[in-house]
Amino acid sequence: MKPIMRKFQQDDDYWRIRAFLRKVLLLNDREQKSWDVARFDYWRWHGILNMNDGTLEDDVFIWENGAGDIIAVLNREAPGSVFLQVHPQCRTDQLEAEMLAVAELYLAVTDNSGQRSLHVWARKDDISRQETLKKQGYHISEKHKSEHQRRRFFSEPIASMPVAEGYIIRSMGDIDEHRKKELASWRAFHPDESDEGFEPGWYRNVQRAPLYRRDLDIVAVAPDGEYAAFCTIWFDDVLRTGHFEPVGTAPQHQRRGLGTCLLTEGLIRLRGLGGDLAYVGSYAEPAHTLYKSAGFETYSILEPWIKEV
């Protein structure tokens, strides 16, 4: 029976998709050939609620078999950027071609010149999906950076890292420290902009995500009491995996080893909770170097394929 496609409809779909992503990750030996639950949660609770990056109802499409089981999910993340999550035992070229057609119809974006385009992510070692993308008119984009999907097992030793003098590594505080976290995040990810563009009040949404734990929301506190660096970890105790997102250091506190200290502390805490595999993504050389220093040496490359629709 041909799979049936429909849009995301109700909150129950959210929980069914999370269960589906766990199942697919296990079938793929916990390799990130699809999203893990942490990334889906982070898109919903931060990307959608704080950054206006789409909606579940408009930007998530579900394929089900005759028994009503989910076999594939199509979703966007950023505008014009989509991901295909497919059950490995139900994967066919025909199904993925259909998913691409739906993405082109509903999720492509239009630039100022009126040109519509879409980019789809595919692993560099996924020859089948690459062939499907080529047949549908896609090519690797030169405008978007590839993602290094890094992972490390806890069978590998966790190196110790001394904390820079005057700094303290600890869990994030209560709501009265939200502004410190938000300001540190602004400075880390907008290093060339002034604090005038900083808008507080969004961190409570992040803490609403089902996997959030404050003991895994780790910060480096500077001598003046401000947050200098941060590292949030999402622990899936069903799969015993931890996902590091986001990790950042304010520019004035960089080159003190704070990022490595936070990663090390996070790995130790994950191990203490029973975690045995950790993920983190990197896009540029400074991030590659940082994560390698914490033992994330194994990675797969996720490439952006683009098509002018």
List the helices and strands and how they pair.
Blueprint: E1 4-7, H1 11-27, H2 37-51, H3 56-59, E2 60-64, E3 70-76, E4 81-86, H4 93-106, E5 109-110, E6 116-123, H5 127-135, E7 139-140, E8 147-153, E9 168-171, H6 178-189, H7 203-207, E10 217-221, E11 227-236, E12 241-249, H8 258-272, E13 277-282, H9 285-293, E14 298-308
Parallel strand pairs: 4-6, 12-13
Antiparallel strand pairs: 1-2, 2-3, 3-4, 5-6, 6-14, 7-14, 8-13, 8-14, 9-10, 10-11, 11-12
Helix pairs in contact: 4-5
Descriptive report:
This protein has 309 residues and is of the alpha+beta class. The protein folds into two domains: 4-145 and 304-308, Gcn5-related N-acetyltransferase (GNAT) (Aminopeptidase, 3-Layer(aba) Sandwich); 168-275, Gcn5-related N-acetyltransferase (GNAT) (Aminopeptidase). The chain is built from nine helices and 14 strands. It has helices at 11-27, 37-51, 56-59, 93-106, 127-135, 178-189, 203-207, 258-272, 285-293; strands at 4-7, 60-64, 70-76, 81-86, 109-110, 116-123, 139-140, 147-153, 168-171, 217-221, 227-236, 241-249, 277-282, 298-308. Strands 1, 2, 3, 4, 5, 6, 7, 8, 9, 10, 11, 12, 13 and 14 form a 14-stranded mixed beta sheet that branches. β3 and β4 form a beta hairpin. α4 (93-106) crosses α5 (127-135). The mean pLDDT is 97.
